[in-house]
Write a structure and sequence with these properties.
It is a single chain. The protein folds into two domains: about 15-175, Tetratricopeptide repeat domain (Serine Threonine Protein Phosphatase 5, Tetratricopeptide repeat, Alpha Horseshoe); about 185-420, Porin, CATH 2.40.160. Helix content is about 35%, strand content about 40%. It has ten helices and 14 strands. A hairpin with a 3-residue loop joins strand 6 and strand 7 (about 285-295). Helix 4 runs parallel beside helix 6. It comes from Sphingobacterium yanglingense. Pfam families: TPR_19 (PF14559), YaiO (PF19413).
Length: about 425
């Protein structure tokens, strides 16, 4: 009997605890200061993702300190994240009537309108916020996002460039700048000249001139290019068409094709397709293929991964070419250091093997691509008045052009693009 009675007492004690514990915790919370309640609300929101409890704690804090602006702003954010749009607007409109000038208020209120497809209201709030805080990186970044989403690329570019002037190491701004740059100018005309000198492999220098026209359309950009080359003391012309259709804000394609009647100087046909992805955490990826036809087809499969970090861009790229016995491999690593906007950077590249994108792609014919090649190079791109883009690059190649026989190549390229 005593054991049974003892068990009943134990269960009664546990039931008592379960009943009294919520009231005890609530009593403890009522004894907390508004700052302590605010800290608990932030913990529930950010660590536990328990927005209803965070809202309850925030309201308790405001009962103690009705004029605590920071908690009001946080409560508005909580309602936004909980998809309680009307409640969020009530909070923000009340703060607006009180003439609140806090930077975080304008960011939070404009974010609500941006996420609910009200770009006009969002832009109005951001302009007011920037009047009070003209160097706010958060307001400038959000304003650029709003206008990029609204297809107002000129204003988006101006805003993101202003942010990058204030903080060139802003990684997210750097990624957005690259995306905006694809749309900011409707037209572009480009001219490039490439000079190549060989110390052993060929007797004659190579000269290549390229003239291109780029047009930005609502679905992406298109480029038509004509290349004239003088190689092996002979001349040739190639015509190329490239397109970059955008599938979504995350994915876009590269689709390219080329034709030349001067086989050997250029491939007779070339095609290529790549799927690009703007990935989370400032990463980007690519997977695709390139095909060259001289007297036979050469199929190359490519993959790359890139990463933006502050004002740096890192990229690793490979081309894999299968044949009957093995898979030939080409690798290249690129680093860019951005000095200002998307068109101003200093770049370095080091790699092995030949790439179908290079002006030396005709060397891929006759199975020369199986031999060893090392390359290292640098480039400098800069803009003047945003519409004049200049580029200078130089690359050194050490190539095994016959078994156990190597030669050097010195490559120099200059380019100019006018956008309008």
């Amino acid at each position: 009997m005593s054991t049974r009675f003892s068990n009943q007492k134990t269960w009664s004690f546990f039931l008592f605890l379960l009943f009294i514990l919520p009231f005890n915790i609530q009593g403890q919370e009522h004894n907390l200061s508004s700052d302590e309640l605010f800290l608990r609300a932030r913990h529930e929101a950010f660590e536990q993702k328990d927005y209803p409890r965070a809202i309850m704690l925030s309201n308790q804090a405001l009962e103690k300190s009705p004029g605590y602006t920071e908690i009001h702003i946080f409560l508005g954010r909580l309602y936004t994240w909980s998809d309680k749009i009307d409640s969020a607007r009530l909070v923000f409109e009340k703060l607006d009537q009180e003439k609140v000038e806090d930077e975080d208020f304008f960011v939070a209120y404009a974010s609500l309108e941006y996420w609910n497809d009200n770009s006009t209201k969002a832009n109005s709030l951001l302009d007011r916020g920037l009047n009070y805080h003209p160097e706010s990186e958060n307001l400038l970044l959000l304003k650029s996002k709003v206008n990029y989403s609204d297809n107002n690329y000129t204003l988006a570019e101006q805003t993101i460039n202003r942010l990058l002037e204030l903080n060139p190491k802003h990684t997210e701004a750097r990624v957005l700048s690259k995306n905006i740059q694809e749309y900011s100018a409707k037209n572009a005309i480009g001219l490039t000249y490439n000079f190549a000198h060989f110390d052993k492999q060929f007797d004659d220098n190579w000269h290549i001139i390229g003239l291109s026209y780029k047009r930005v359309t609502p679905i992406g950009s298109m480029i038509f290019r004509t290349n004239y080359a003088n190689k092996f003391a002979d001349n040739g012309v190639q015509f190329e068409l490239e397109a970059y259709p955008r599938l979504s804000k995350m994915f876009y394609l590269y689709v390219g094709a080329g034709y030349s009647d001067n086989v050997g100087i250029f491939p007779k046909y070339r095609t290529g397709v790549s799927l690009y992805a703007n990935l989370p955490h400032s990463f980007e990826g690519e997977i695709g293929y390139r095909q060259l036809y001289f007297s036979d087809n050469i199929w190359m499969y490519t993959a790359s991964v890139g990463k933006y970090y502050q004002n740096f861009w890192f990229n690793l790229k490979t081309y894999l070419t299968p044949n009957n016995k093995n898979i030939s491999q080409s690798y290249a690593g690129t680093i860019r250091y951005y000095t200002k906007g998307a068109n101003d950077y200093l770049g370095f590249i080091v790699g092995t093997g030949l790439s179908p994108e290079e002006n030396r792609s005709n060397l891929l014919d006759n199975n020369i691509y199986k031999l060893k090649t090392f390359k290292v190079g640098a480039e400098y791109n800069f803009s003047i008045n945003r519409t004049n883009l200049f580029s200078v690059s130089s690359t050194y190649y050490n190539q095994e052009f016959r078994a156990k026989e190597k030669g050097n190549q010195y490559d120099f390229t200059v380019g100019y693009i006018k956008t309008f």
